[in-house]
Design brief:
The structure is a homodimer of 123-residue chains. With 123 residues, chain A is of the alpha+beta class. Helices cover 63% and strands 12% of the residues of chain A. The first copy, chain A, has one domain (2-120): Winged helix-like DNA-binding domain superfamily/Winged helix DNA-binding domain (Arc Repressor Mutant, subunit A).
């Protein structure tokens, strides 16, 4: 998945410099679907806060039990949002004992940032 | 708006290195709302393709009349998606004669990419 997004970023960057006009699409329908799904996972304030909390943790991971307090949300709601971030390939989940631990998938956010940067390269 | 997002990126980066644990939120509720609104505008494949077409244009801008063909969408649908991108502060719109011309707001995508990069800095 990370490779797919890096490829999107690359394709867009390459495409941007070679496109003679806007009549040739810069981003394919398939690539845009992959990207849109990830941005959809980020399109919620609580999910962004959860992601920042997980990323900011000293150990690089956070227990779901530590994430409910700062957001003042119930555990089912937090778990629901975390699942969306996992399904989008942004967070990894590991069950240890009774708790699930979450960490940011290495490179996932950088790949998305790269895709955005490639869009903006011509702006 | 660009300044607000740059500030978000900066705050997150600062917060990430200083947070003793995940009990202190890395991203405020207000900042996360601003970011989420922009990601929501990007959470649609057709809007991503429109953005890439506008960004890839030789002149740095694109007429709405040039954007309907590549996506095989009607002009009302294209205009609807473009308005969402304008409202999110990602595209600028200028009316000249009968047509509206769109360009990527300078720095808008880089600011978003920076915010994502700051999230991932600890990952």
């Amino acid at each position: 998945m990370a490779e797919a997004l890096a490829e999107v970023a690359e394709k867009t960057a390459d495409g941007a410099c070679c496109l003679p006009s806007v009549e040739t699409p810069g981003l394919s329908a398939a690539d845009s679907s992959v990207l849109a799904a990830r941005f959809k996972a980020l399109a919620d304030p609580n999910r962004l806060r959860l992601l920042s909390l997980v990323a900011a943790g000293d150990s690089g991971e956070a227990c779901v039990c530590d994430l409910t307090g700062p957001l003042d949300l119930g555990q089912p709601t937090v778990s629901h949002h975390l699942k969306i971030l996992v399904d989008a390939g942004l967070l990894a989940r590991e069950k240890r004992g009774v708790w699930a631990y979450y960490s940011v998938v290495p490179g996932a956010l950088d790949d998305l940032a790269g895709a955005l940067g490639a869009f903006g390269a011509n702006a």
